[in-house]
Fold this sequence. Notes:
Elements: E1 3-7, H1 13-20, H2 23-29, H3 39-50, E2 55-61, E3 64-72, E4 79-84, H4 93-104, E5 110-115, H5 119-127, E6 131-140, E7 145-154
Antiparallel strand pairs: 1-2, 2-3, 3-4, 5-7, 6-7
Amino acid sequence: MQVALRDVHDSDLPVFFRQLNDPQALHMAAFTPRDPADWDAFEAQWKKQRSSADVVRTVLADGDVVGSAAVYGEPGEREVTYWIDRTYWGRGIATAALGTLLTEVPERPLYARAAADNGGSLRVLTKCGFRPTARATGYANARGEEIDEVVLTLEV
């Protein structure tokens, strides 16, 4: 499967919105918007991201839109995030997409956060060179409670 990144097109947003509203994916991601079914808030957030200094990309697998990946935040505190359609989990797409994104954004350190029980995401991040550096708790909108999370850092 060929994985590539490109700029986000307006036509990608309905695909991302559908992916964001998959109950299983929401639970796994945990740290999601308060109301993922709010199209207006979703669209406003994407408009803000796309007009900022954030690096936001659409993830393609064999030419199909399968998710998104981004680096966002203030210099010195920038974080990575990604979302891959659940039907594509377990195929190495997230690892390939994040690896490509990291070559586009050479600044370091970069940070990532994942729910402590999200083994798939933790594997992707460690395969891409991130190392756990802290544990924290945070309110997970998708789960309606405080949960444990792992903070990871990519140094070089």
